[in-house]
């Protein structure tokens, strides 16, 4: 398994939360903002945490959770955040998670990291229904160029990115830890 210094954690917080109706990163779940809960999980497995944000205007709010990186491609979704992460990461692996996954656990993330030893291009979480979660995944630096190319052509779908990678490994994780919150009624 990778040691904490060999992986950069990236929390994606650059979205506009349109479906949620307010900034979901700051919505309280069991008394803590979602981003604080995600940060606690990811910082337990890596010493390097970046926060991908959509604009410089929002960096001040997030800096207590890590160094902020600004998406260089406007309105290009999570792929722009991953690109921004690669622009600043000093490691070969980028552990990507959404800020809206408040039930994520360090154990789940460790299981993803363990699967990197077979050296795939990506290790992606899969829930017990067989659904892949590309926003809870480890991406190897070999993916950085493809991410940039896809952004240049505005081909933004993460599932399509995964389809282009030679080796993608999935890791079964508890569905609860992968639950992302897109609307207030998604909360239990």
Question: Architecture in CATH?
Answer: Alpha-Beta Complex
In CATH terms, the superfamily is Spore Coat Polysaccharide Biosynthesis Protein SpsA, Chain A
Order of helices and strands: EEEHEHEHEHEEHHEH
Strand sequence of the main sheet, in spatial order?
A: 5-4-1-6-8-7-9
Strand content: 15-25%
Number of helices: 7
> What is the helix content?
25-40%
Mean pLDDT, to the nearest integer, reads: 89
The CATH topology annotation reads as Spore Coat Polysaccharide Biosynthesis Protein SpsA, Chain A
The dominant shape is globular
List how many beta strands DSSP finds: 9
Major β-sheet annotation? 7 strands, mixed
Task: Give a structural overview.
- The protein has 188 residues and is of the alpha/beta class.
- It has a single domain (4-186), classed as Spore Coat Polysaccharide Biosynthesis Protein SpsA, Chain A (Alpha-Beta Complex), CATH 3.90.550.
- The chain contains 7 helices and 9 strands.
- The strands form 2 sheets. Strands 5-4-1-6-8-7-9 form a 7-stranded mixed sheet, sandwiched between helices. A two-stranded antiparallel sheet has the order 2-3.
- A hairpin with a 5-residue loop joins β7 and β8.
- The longest helix is centred in the middle third of the chain and has 12 residues, at 77-88.
- The mean pLDDT is 89.
């Amino acid at each position: 398994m990778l040691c904490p210094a060999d992986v950069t954690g990236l929390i994606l917080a650059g979205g506009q939360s349109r479906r949620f109706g307010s900034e979901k990163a700051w919505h309280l779940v069991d008394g803590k903002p979602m981003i604080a809960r995600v940060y606690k999980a990811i910082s337990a497995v890596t010493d390097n945490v970046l926060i991908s944000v959509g604009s410089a205007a929002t960096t001040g709010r997030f800096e207590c959770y890590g160094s902020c990186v600004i998406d260089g491609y406007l309105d290009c979704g999570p792929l722009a955040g991953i690109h921004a992460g690669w622009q600043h990461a000093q490691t070969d692996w980028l552990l990507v998670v959404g800020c809206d996954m408040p039930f994520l656990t360090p154990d789940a993330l460790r299981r993803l990291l363990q699967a990197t030893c077979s050296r795939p291009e990506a290790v992606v979480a899969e829930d017990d229904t067989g659904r892949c979660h590309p926003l809870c995944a480890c991406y190897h630096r070999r993916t950085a160029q493809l991410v940039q190319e896809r952004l240049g052509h505005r081909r933004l779908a993460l599932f399509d990115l995964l389809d282009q990678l030679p080796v993608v490994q999935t890791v079964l994780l508890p569905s609860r830890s992968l639950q992302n919150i897109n609307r207030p009624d998604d909360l239990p």
